[in-house]
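Listing 4. Sequential folding, example run.
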Amino acid sequence: MKEECIEYLRKVNKTDPIIKHIIEIHDEYCKILEDEIIVDVFVCEDFNKDNQKEDTSLIFFTSKGGLLEAKNYILNDRDIDYVKYLDKVDYYQIQYRNYDLEYITDSSWMKVLVKLSNGIRIYLYAIGKNCEYLTCLLKKYFVPLIK
C-alpha cells in the first residue's frame, strides 16, 4: 500500500491493528485486479443510531477508473463490489453539516452521492477530518467526469 494511504489512515485515527487489516485487504484486492493499481483508499464513516461514529465501508480507487468497496471490513467479511466510474458520471450531490468545505470540527459530516450513467449510485460518507479528504476525492475523481 502506498505510504500516502497509510498516512491518511493515521490522520483519521485508525489504529495499527485496523491499518494492518486494511493493508491485508488491499493486498488481496491487488491479486484480483491484476493490471490495475490501487491509488487511493477511503474509509466511509457515518453516525449510527446512537450518534456514535462508525466505519461503514472501505473504498479503494484504482488507476484505471475502478472503485472497490469492502462492506463490513471491520468484521473481516469479504463482501466486495467493483464498478468502473471513468467517463460515466451523470450527477453528484453533496450534503454537509458543521462543515463549510474549509473549517472542520469533530461533528462535521458529509455525504456524497455520485450517480453513474448506468444507474449505479455510489454513496460516500465522512465525519470530522475525513470530510476534507472526501472533498479532495470528489474533486479528483468525480467532478472532472461530470457530463
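-- end of first protein; second protein begins --
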Amino acid sequence: MRLLPALAIGLAMLPRMGATEAVDAKAYLACIAGGEALQSCLAVAHAACDAIPAETPAAAIACYRAAEQGWTDAIKSTLQSRAETMAPDALTALSINTRYDLMTALLQCDRRQEIGLAVTQDPAPEIQAARARCGALSAALVLARLGAAP
C-alpha cells in the first residue's frame, strides 16, 4: 500500500519534536471553528510567549520554539488521525501539501532572519527571537489550514 510509506515520509520531514507541548492545539482549533478571527486565536495561543519582555530574547526564543514543537506535534497527530477516515490517495496528497506548506513558510522565516542579520542594526538575539516567533506562527497557520481541510 502506497499510503503508509508516503505518510511516514511526510511525517518524517516535519521538524523533530520534544515531549513538551507549549500550546493547546485543541483549544486553538476550537477557537477557529467557533468563528473567532484567526488572529485572535493565535494571540490567545501565543499569549505566554508574547508576554515575555523584549529584554529577554533567549526566553522568548525558547518559548516560541516550544510552541512550534507543539504545533508540529498537533500537525502530525492530525495527519495520523486522518488516516482512519480519508482515502489513501487523498491522505497522501494532504500530507505532501502540508509538508510543503510548512517548509515554504519556514523558508520565508529564514529569509527574513538572514536579511535582518545582514542589513539591519538590530541585535542578533532580537532577530533570532523574531525568527522563532515566525516559526511558531507558521506552524500554527499550517495547523489551522489542516484543521479546516475536508
